[in-house]
Amino acid sequence: MPYHRYMGTSVRANVIVPTQHSHSQKPVHRNGFTLIELLCTLAIIAVLLGIAVPSMTTLLQQSRSTAFANELTGLVNATRQLAVSSQTVTTFCPTIDYLTCSKDWSQGAMVFTDENANLTLDDNDQLFRVLPALKDGNKLYWRAFQNKQLIQFSPMGYTRSQNGTFTFCPHTGGLTTTRLLIVNKSGRVRPGTDKNNDGIQEQPNGKAPDCEA
């Protein structure tokens, strides 16, 4: 025990040494991911994206295909109504120059009065509606009786003994994005049906769409 000398007198000093209490330390919790957890999470995200992205792409293309089919229906109906209102023959046909009919519907099309039914926009004819050329590799086919690449309506509003099917084939998306429009001899238009519920519209003969030229 240490002593301190104070004014000639030895005094013992008590030194108090604090005692160190032993308390058990609580575990420290750290928030975050381990490397393995992070890799597993990334793998799950990649799988989900692999499923979701193609599905979303198909849905978008189906929506575009339906919109185009509606536009095409409007053009056929417009050709029919123009024939009745103008009391003359009208023609809906593919064209490149918007003056004469051609054979490739994907290059564009036109609706016009065709008084002499010569498939040419003459001076006395009226250009009524046009369909621009398709983009992105999309294709449009018209398969009809006598294999004529056109539709003509009489002043009575009937086709000139024609019936057939339009087939719109997008470049991507497969047959579930293909759209069919069926035109009967009376000029009525209806979409293809899906009787077996496989997501694919069917031709009048029950077969799948034909997107081969």
How many DSSP E strands? Answer: 10
Gyration radius over CA: 39 Å
Structural class by sheet pairing and helices: alpha+beta
What fraction of residues sit in β-strands?
A: 15-25%
CATH class of the domain at 49-191: Alpha Beta
Element string (H = helix, E = strand): EEHEEEEEEEE
**Termini, distance in Å?**
111 Å
Helix content: 10-25%
Instruction: List the total number of helices.
Output: 1
Q: Averaged pLDDT, please? A: 84
CATH architecture annotation of the domain at 49-191: 3-Layer(bab) Sandwich
Task: Explain what you see.
- Helices cover 24% and strands 22% of the residues.
- By secondary structure, it is of the alpha+beta class.
- It has a domain at 49-191: minor pseudopilin epsh fold, CATH 3.55.40.
- Strand 9 and strand 10 form a beta hairpin.
- Mean pLDDT is 84; it is low at 3-11.
Describe how the helices and strands are arranged.
Elements: E1 3-6, E2 9-12, H1 35-86, E3 90-94, E4 109-113, E5 127-131, E6 139-144, E7 151-153, E8 164-169, E9 179-183, E10 189-191
Antiparallel strand pairs: 1-2, 3-4, 3-7, 4-5, 6-8, 8-9, 9-10
Structural features:
213 residues; 4-stranded antiparallel β-sheet; 10 strands; alpha+beta; minor pseudopilin epsh fold; 1 helix
Q: What is shown here, in short?
A:
The chain has one helix spanning 35-86, and strands spanning 3-6, 9-12, 90-94, 109-113, 127-131, 139-144, 151-153, 164-169, 179-183, 189-191. By secondary structure, the protein is an alpha+beta fold. It has a four-stranded antiparallel beta sheet with strand order 5-4-3-7, covered by helices on one side. Strands 6-8-9-10 form a four-stranded antiparallel beta sheet, covered by helices on one side.
